[in-house]
Amino acid sequence: MSLEFLKEAGMKKSMRHQSPKTVAVFFLTAAILIDGLSGCSGKAPEAKAPRPEKAAVKLLPEAGVRLSNDPGKTEIFRDAGLGLFIHWGPNSQMGTEISWPLYNASEDYIKKYYALAETFNPAAFDPAAWARLARLAGMEYVVFTAKHHDGFCMFDTDLSDFKITRTPYGRDIAAMVADAFRKEGFLVGFYYSPGDFRYQWETGERTGHIYEPNFESPALFGPLRKNFVDYERGQIEELLTRYGDIFMLWFDGKCEPLKKHSWRVRQDVFIGRGEIPTPEQEIPGLAADHAWESCLTTSYQWSFLPGAEVRSSPEIIDNLIHIRARGGNMLLNIGPRPDGRIAPADEDRLRDLGLWMMLYGESVRGVRPWIVTNEGDVWFTRRRSDGTVYALTGLERNARKLLVRSIAASPETRVTLLSQDGDCKWEQTAAGLMIEVARKQTVRLIRAPAGPGVKTDDPDKQLLTWGPDWPVAVKITNAKPAEGFAKKEGR
After folding, report:
1. Model pTM?
2. Of the candidates 216, 197, 117, which has an alpha carbon nearest to the alpha carbon of residue 165?
3. CA–CA separation, 491 vs 474, rounded Å?
4. How far apart are CA 335 and CA 349, in angstroms?
5. What is the pLDDT of residues 428-439, one digit of tens each?
6. Are the C-beta atoms of residues 104 and 389 closer than 8 Å to each other?
7. Please, which residues have CB within 8 angstroms of residue 200's CB and are 6 or more apart in sequence?
């Protein structure tokens, strides 16, 4: 029996004068009969056709690809200096670390971990609010986890069904993040894990480390039935061609075939990890005048951690100063909550960082290392466009006298405290450059520590002061290295 048979029997014509309800019941019954009869025919149901592929991306010839970062993009990256790292996925619902619980896990646990995608629905997600907060924090670029080691895709890929658009949320979060941050003037980057535990698990190739991809694997995966390297190359093409101007790709793991393919898709895309040093949770001890990036978390894990104990604001600011003085970038990570909001403790840290950047951000943007990273607790950066040097240091009761030995002033030199009106007193002496720094600007009010002879419980003596004891930045124009200092002191 078929619909053609029903037409020939004149049933369609006879239904014209029946009520809509009667017509609906009739055709539903007919459909059930047709399905049942076709199932009894002994004919196997037709296999689902693979999802059609979109038009092929035009690639640069392999022989014509430069296998290194674009020099101009590298300088833009180094000038930016401060970025926001975002690790997020369905696992945030349970507060686990992202992906790593799958390593050495039982089959039962793996199924439970992957089932979290079925309930992931971040209804409070507001990417524009994220971008505004990051802009207030003084950040210049963002790196968002498009796919972590667990294989879950936060973008609408054609090559996997394990993705955000098949969750209750159903929308392409990576596209929303890219669009919102780009509108705020950010350089947009995507984190991408070449290691893919979902591929290993579904294809039965769970033999290697979760972090290490086997690009030679022929096992077919996903709705388009691709071998491993073609599956991942296809996703790289999607990320670089469907999401607007992507400044950076950040490969967390072995990535040679993907890195080369990225440059074939877009020769000027900047490769972070995979091409430059990117130490995690540490700051190298020596300056390096080339692109590198220190990746630090606000808490102890990359993904959302309930009740997390976070780094203090002074520690985050000190880390930024030390990294920039040594020539690197700081990529500061947050793990959003499962509903899409940034955790209050992380938001507080970003707002504190934003206040410091509002006052002193000039000293860490567009800068390179000075001839020394520091003299004791005084740290230096150098603006690459001219002879300006910044000395960053803490004060004691809002004032301090500095003796800077590595800098020689000239009659044209001017010394100021960033964001404060007026000049600092200074004098070039045989011992070095003497600077008197006094902070007079009130920006945030906190209770001042009691001075000598003042009782802390006396309400009349609870004075207010400028605010947190954060480092200040002293700007020194027309500065030159002191004669012979670099040779003697080095870095």
Report:
1. 0.86
2. 117
3. 21
4. 13
5. 999 999 999 999
6. no
7. 206, 207, 208, 210
